[in-house]
Write a structure and sequence with these properties.
386 residues, six-stranded mixed beta sheet, nine-stranded parallel beta sheet, alpha/beta
């Protein structure tokens, strides 16, 4: 059975800085991307994503985009704005929809049936998961889903082997580091949850890791206190990181506290970049978006930083700061919403400048700027810069 993911036609500002930039299917919720969660739930391979808001999107390892008109059963069309929990669910014969708490989260097409759009289903097959309404929910997923996701890795890991010269606080069976390079004098604290280091990842001496923690392939942990976070592939992390999501290919290689934050692909934080994740009033945090305020419902929230965004050294970010795709911010007083491709506080990064930087940055992680990726970047720039 083929699997397709359905994006919202207009994700809305509350999905900033990824609205119109990156499909929700390509965001990391817990240890997995949304599309990976659906593949695991249904034991199916994703054929494509229906994403009207990002019609030219392409990035390293991303799923292909498809049109709704091309979908014919047998197939499942699932909502990207839902993060399922579980593995290898078998859909009973005759079921036409999957539901969670009465809400329809996927539609099941029989052989030869054409997809004709989402409809409310009253007698669906119930699955478990978390509805996604905003980018800040990725932080909430760290709190709710990450520990369970890490446990699923332990079910398939050798487990129990403590790297030479390292210390484990808690049960060593909650540690999975096979295929990772771990130097002596790394501390693993698994008393609050498992720690997973994927093959090819590196943990340098002087790093303290606290679970639940997921570290993707070929990511480097370069020292400091790193806890309760989900770190995608090919990231660099140093300093203090707490309850944050690095979707992949992000760079935080220097000191500075980043807490309850989200970093997109190819984001880069300059040395000493610090996020505030709690208001002095301890109240709930609002986002300052172009069309008004958005209530996140969270008391702890740092910064939401988009794809290809960059901060200068010593940058201080207030609670709930949103930095949109391609922006470059320098130290000093910053607005809590930084527009896409803002450059030097008032200018906009040109297309030629954007592509030139991408061609320099992406090969540093072994990724070539293909024709499809370049077309995607050009389309992204045109969407936000007139």
């Amino acid at each position: 059975m083929n699997l397709y993911l359905l994006e919202p036609a207009e994700p809305g500002e509350h999905w900033a800085p990824f609205s119109g930039v990156r499909p929700i299917a390509e965001l990391r919720v817990g240890a997995f991307l949304v599309r990976e969660r659906w593949e695991r739930l249904l034991n199916a391979n994703l054929v494509g994503v229906i994403s009207p808001a990002t019609p030219r999107f392409a990035d390293v390892g991303s799923a292909p985009l498809v049109t709704a008109a091309s979908i014919v059963g047998p197939a499942v069309v699932a909502r990207s704005a839902f993060a399922p929990i579980g593995n290898d669910v078998v859909i009973p014969p005759g079921v036409k929809a999957l539901t969670c708490g009465g809400a329809t989260v996927a539609w099941v097409l029989g052989p030869g049936a054409a997809w004709n759009g989402p409809k409310v289903a009253h007698d669906g097959f119930e699955v478990q998961g978390m509805a996604l309404e905003q980018t800040a929910d990725l932080v909430t997923a760290c709190e709710r889903l990450l520990e369970g996701d890490c446990v699923t890795f332990l079910d398939h890991a050798a487990g129990g082997a403590v790297p030479a010269g390292c210390v484990v606080l808690g049960d060593p069976a909650a540690l999975a580091v096979a295929g990772a390079t771990v130097e002596p004098m790394v501390v693993f604290d698994v008393r609050k949850g498992p720690i997973i280091l994927e093959p090819g990842s590196i943990a340098r001496a002087g790093t303290r890791l606290e679970g639940p923690l997921y570290v993707g392939p070929h990511s480097w942990l370069l020292g400091g206190a790193i806890r309760s976070s989900s770190i995608g592939p090919h990231c660099r992390v140093h300093g203090e990181l707490a309850t944050s999501v690095l979707i992949g290919y992000a760079n935080k290689a220097h000191d500075g506290f980043v807490g309850h934050s989200v970093l997109g692909h190819w984001a880069n934080l300059g040395a000493g970049t610090i996020t505030s994740n709690l208001k002095n009033t301890y109240g709930q945090i609002r986002l300052e978006l172009p069309n008004g305020r958005w209530e996140t419902g969270r008391s702890f929230l740092g910064s939401l930083i988009g794809d290809h965004a960059k901060t200068g050294i010593g940058t201080l970010l207030s609670t709930g700061t949103v930095i949109c795709a391609g922006a470059n911010v320098l130290a000093g007083k910053l607005p809590r919403f930084v527009e896409p491709f803002l450059w030097n506080k008032s200018e906009r990064l040109t297309l030629d400048g954007f592509l030139t930087i991408a061609r320099r940055v992406m090969p540093r992680r072994g990724v070539q700027v293909t024709a499809d990726i370049e077309a995607s970047l050009a389309s992204l720039h045109a969407r936000f810069v007139q």
